[in-house]
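Minutes, project check-in
Item: structure for the 211-residue chain
Input as provided by the requester:
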Amino acid sequence: MSDISELLIALKEWRKSVRQLKKKGKTPQERSRQLERARRKVLAHLSKESVIEEIDDLIQSATSLDTFSAEDVRETLTEDAESLVTVELRTVHPLAVKRKALEKLTTHFMNTPDKDEPIANSDELKTIFLRLSLIIPHEYWESIPLSRKQKKRRRRDLAMGTLQTTLGIGLLAGNTQLESIVANSSYILGGNALMAAMQNLIGHLHDIDNF
């Protein structure tokens, strides 16, 4: 099994551990420890030299194409979203995400501002995951005393942020070996998903030094 595949599996387990925060049967401490183990495993994979090299190569390739932009991805999704989603699902198969989840991510992309070069390198990718993986459980526990309506809204945001984080990294990592145009679409979709999670949950990088 490749290091990239192991990273995707670790991301799947991290997302599963986030979702299990609300499950009964284990104490909050046990659920937190499980999530922390999953988080550290993802960070360990993101620190592997082979993963760093492959992600940086994809980003460098994607950002060197002056003629390829977020607008091109929008046009592709408008003309034939089904085909692009099918390809992306195949390449992130180890994540075990449903088609509906990826379609939710592409719909969000179509309806929000985006960037042509959302992620600069693997270091920034790792930093983003580090910040998000700390704030998501923090916000979950903070939502417990909220009213039912407020809690439902906040946890819906957290679920979306978790999905954006998982698929954002998954699209970047899982598509490192694809034909260039498809890989570039993955870079723009994945990178913008991570940016959306950052903005929705904790704001810009320079605003979150405490996490």
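Outcome recorded: The longest helix spans residues 148-174.
No further action items on this chain.
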